[in-house]
Amino acid sequence: MDLSQINPILLVASLMVAATPILLAAIGELVVERAGVLNLGVEGMMITGAICGFAVAVETGSPWLGFLAAAIGGAALSFLFVILTQFALANQVASGLALTLFGLGLSSLLGQSYVGIKPPPTPDLHIPLLSDIPILGPVVFSHDLILYLGIAIVAGVWALLKFTRAGLIMRAVGENHDAAHALGYKVVRIRVMAILFGGACAGLGGAYISLVRVPQWTEGMTAGVGWIALALVVFASWKPWRVLLGAYLFGGITVLQLNLQAAGVAIPVEYLAMSPYVITIVVLVILSADKSRAPGSLGRIFHATS
Amino acid sequence: MSDILLSLKGLTKAYPGVVANDNVSFDIGTGEVHALLGENGAGKSTLVKMIYGLVKPDSGTMTLRGKAFAPAEPRAARADGIAMVFQHFSLFDALNVAENIALGMENPPPMRDLAARIREVSETYGLPLDPYRTVGDLSAGERQRVEIIRCLLQDPKLLIMDEPTSVLTPQEVEILFKTLRKLSAEGTAILYISHKLEEIRALCDHATVLRLGKNVGECVPAETSARDMAELMVGTALKTPTRAGRDMGDVALEIVSLDAKSPSAFGTSLKSVSLSVRKGEVLGIGGVAGNGQDELLAVLSGEILTAPGSVKLHGRPIGQTGPTARRGIGLLTAPEERLGHAAAPDMSLTENAMLTGSVRENLESRGFLKWRTAQGFAEKIIEAFDVRTPGPNNAARSLSGGNLQKFVIGREVLQRPEVLVVNQPTWGVDASAAAAIRQAILDLVAKGAAVICISQDLDELMEISDRFAALNEGRLSEPRPTTGLTVEEIGLMMGGAHGMEVAHV
Question: For the segment B423-438, what is each residue's pLDDT rounded down to a tens digit?
């Protein structure tokens, strides 16, 4: 056992990278759920985003076009969910599960000719001054643009929900769709926009795995990250900054336990492998002991009568 | 009244299978308090939804201050000075008062200014309210204030109120009426929907009566008796429930200083409740909703088990006896919540009849269901209580609220209970059906059953009960004979105005 192999600077830097896919998917799902919709298809939208982003990045040579394509791909798949749940009024749980299965299948089909290829590298930013700060610079300020975009989305969603009228209307729709409708707000339109936003975020998260974290394409490479993101939203009590905390905690412990495994710590590998799940859930359950609760209309089908 | 504010001409709206409004016309004057009367399903709600822009009329026109008025959505109606307080409050529990109010406004000022204006307006109209409290924690009366203030902040020309007093104590109603009279004096017209005829007589200048979607008459409420208005609504002479002379027998059911914790986090626990009801007697229990009514019913039905001796049927301790066994020995209950508590929404009427009737009506043998007998029992209920439904195989959910209520009450009454406990027996039921249900309860009593009737409708309790008690925060007041009880005394028994102050204006 040799703990000195673990470099704390590398650890923090890589935990930010490890956390970003979960963070992106979870913040998108948070918006969807705050609008009162439960979309269980996060995993399917992520993997679709992963292959769309990978394919376009490979074909064009530009990772940025790849990320754009990933967001569009995720949103396009979520549009299927929109049609099913918002217009055909299908059950959200069943539709979400179907979306996941469909996304996994679709991505395998699309990705057949991309196995074993390396995507164009996503450049890290070099921010003048900030990146030159010793220790802190390389750890916090020398990542790629998408990682910072994820944090910016969290901040943006928080500000939207807390300070703006649009955010208030969205919370109202999620809280009581009948009352919102009676006041004349367009429940379906607001939900459609939220679902598409959630799809785009999940797509970006998926592409972050295939273009930055792993940089290659393999079938089913999201490996359950979408489900973690879903759980994270609940345990974070539908609060944006807690989603960030949960994602970084999960990412951090994942990276740490991999390092510990490599260092040969005398704890069985199975326990190390389960530790990110256990610790993240325990911390967030303790945090969610306050009186926050799920949006009142979450998962309920809205049918306008009148 | 002087000039006409809103004029409706020939409004018609049809839904598949039913004409909700058929050629309805009337005028509302500036500053007039105009009542809209009618039974359930008479088309009152559809009509106000058209004025508020939630529903588009199939034909007919509206004129507001001489200009054509056809709001495409509530936003447009609000912009033209129409505001509405909904029957089922359109509030968001998880948001605070100021946020709820901002949602109902077109161009709300920043939160801090809005909070200040809420304080100002709420004090002017004698409706004190803290803008930063979460709406989920407010009482029904306070929630209604939120709705009213939301409307007042937009300086409305016409305020629509859909059944505003159903959840208020008499004192709270008085405060509301003061506010409405002040508004009317300032020139705001009010369209007031209610079936409480005495309130309309006290408040309204003019009344329009709807029956089956048609305008069947207008009257000046102050000069028309409540009975005449009711008959105009129903279209036939109204039968008043009659009670035969009663012989009170022995004590049938007794509760002795009972404390019971509410199973729900938002419920009210019962605190040292004692009551007794004799054979041939109706005990009426009033009180504002949420003061322990559901818990009292659960204690009596056996859903909440208590110390054996604290609930006694014919002197026998039954505190630890479950609901089915209580049915077996003649204690039947009909809870308030029709869909989900009194009836299983997606099951047929036959199945619902079986759910509570199997013990006393002998609808099962050795665990097997007797479908034919059960269907016969369901048909008997439908027949005896005039439940409007194609047949006993229809799902409970498909019935209108009033019809399902008749079924639920009929199901218990026809099982020949020795003690019957009903919660809100005529809630949402129209005048003639309500009279039929009350008559059925009185007939049952005449045959020697004991009845406990929990209700929010004070007129109903005064009409059928021999003694009256009120629940207030889980405590039951001392029961008093109903003859000679005044509204003020009842209000005080119900806990007064819940610390509300009457407007200082």
Answer: 988 876 777 788 888 9
